[in-house]
Amino acid sequence: MKKFLSLLAGIFFAGAASANAAEYGFDKAHSHVGFSVTHILSKVSGEFKSYDGTFKFDSKDPSADSVAVTIDVTSISTDNEMRDHHLQSPDFFDAAKYPTITFTSTSVAKTGDNDYKITGDLTMHGVTKSVVLDTEYLGADSMPLPMSKDPKDVAQLVGFNATTKIDRRDFGLTWGQDKLTAAGNLMVANDVTIELDIAGEDTASLKKMMEMMKNKMPKPAPAATPAN
Amino acid sequence: MRLWNGLLVLTAVLAWGTTSSGLAGVYAIDPAHTHVGFTVQHIFSKVLGQFKTFDGVISFDEKEPSADSISVTIQTSSIDTNNEIRDKHLQSPDFFDAAKNPTITFVSVKVKARGDKKYKVEGNLTLHGVTKRVIFTMEYLGQDVDPYGNQVAGFSANTTIDRRDFGLVWNKTLASGNLLVGNNVDIDLEVSANLKK
């Protein structure tokens, strides 16, 4: 009896520690991976339009939280084709050599009711440095999956806002140190503010959405009837 | 010799004085370094967007804010929220109705200084066929000369509007009561403008 009870307790306890650390993916239609850099006096903004990743979040246990993201460098967009090409060239990101930017968290600390500090390794342009994202948890909600008739298909949603500031020179992005104005301002500043607006959706729902969208797409040729 | 030195010093002081207090003039907004952006709440997180095609003129005299003016015209169809389906929806009659309202304009009526390099810019915003008075909080970021000889001035301005005031009322409510699309829209402008030659 004692053995059975302790076994039960063991299973229950082990389960409970990570039971609430749900896994989420990015609702890309409602997320934004952005950055801004000062050009002489005013800010120029840009974003990365293509990225992927998942994160684990448990509002009660930050030690269970983690995030891993991979960003496609060629998806950079600053609304200027010439500039976007220049940014992907060896003068800047050298996308041909370093096609991705990655961020992998190493620790998450809760610093307030809804505030967190996410420490992680940012790898960009072949250089890895530890950065800290000042993060705010914006809340959670649920929404029935569009395109599904099953009332059990409900997506769990969470929202975050995270920012950090980096010096691009730390990642070997040094172009333009000689491009100065009369007053000594850089054409492209060294400080880069990274701003992330994140809408997360549980990975199970995201998978279901993708399957439903795939099934809705027209099939190229009549498939053989499966022997059911 | 002393008189000549004196004249040189006087010229330098005058020149420096003009530069530090801003050259009065008419500036053309530089679209390559200007951002016309907005943020709206989606349930509880923020969705960002921008208008990519616009032009405008700023008449700016740091010493005489009452003489300042700004006029901007934005192409509604240049809206970009990084989602083709949503951008099409935003241009439809559900939202901006770009076919009927191809432009969004802002024309200032009054500019008041509100402290060191801070201003309140009041004007008429015409959006979705409705004109309403709005006030932007603006910061003058200074002026400089770039390596190509352009006299550049920088400005940062923002305001918040209730889209319903402009007839933009489309929405859906979740079971929780959260709105799919917030009613408040934060408008933020980061402007780089070149002195017209």
Describe the structure using short key phrases:
heterodimer; A: 228 residues; alpha+beta; Lipocalin; eight-stranded antiparallel beta barrel; 11 strands; globular; B: 197 residues; mainly beta; 2 helices; 14% helix
Describe this structure in words.
The complex is a heterodimer of chains A (228) and B (197). Chain A has 228 residues and is α+β, with helices and mostly antiparallel strands. Chain A has helices at residues 2-19, 81-88, 203-216, and strands spanning 22-26, 32-39, 42-48, 51-57, 66-72, 76-77, 100-110, 115-124, 127-144, 154-167, 191-202. Chain A has one domain (20-209): Lipocalin. Chain A is built from three helices and eleven strands; from the N terminus they run αββββββαβββββα. The longest helix of chain A has 18 residues, at 2-19. Chain B starts with a helix and ends with a strand. Chain B is mainly beta and 197 residues long. Chain B is 14% helix and 49% strand. Chain B is built from two helices and eleven strands. Chains A and B meet through strand 2, strand 3, strand 9, strand 10 and strand 11 of A and strand 2, strand 3, strand 9, strand 10 and strand 11 of B.
Short description:
The complex is a heterodimer of chains A (228) and B (197). By secondary structure, chain A is of the alpha+beta class.
Please tell me the CATH architecture of chain B by its name. Beta Barrel
What is the assembly state of the chains in this entry? heterodimer
Could you tell me the mean pLDDT of chain A? 90
CATH superfamily of chain A: Lipid/polyisoprenoid-binding, YceI-like
Shape of chain B: elongated
What CATH architecture of chain A would you give?
A: Beta Barrel
Beta content of chain A comes to 35-45%
Q: Of all protein chain pairs, which has the greatest interface, and how many residues does each chain bring to it?
A: A-B, 38 and 38 residues
Indicate the CATH topology of chain A: Lipocalin
CATH class of chain B: Mainly Beta
The total of beta strands of chain B comes to: 11
* Lateral strand order in the biggest sheet of chain B: 1-4-5-7-8-9-10-11
State the fourth-level CATH superfamily of chain B.
Lipid/polyisoprenoid-binding, YceI-like
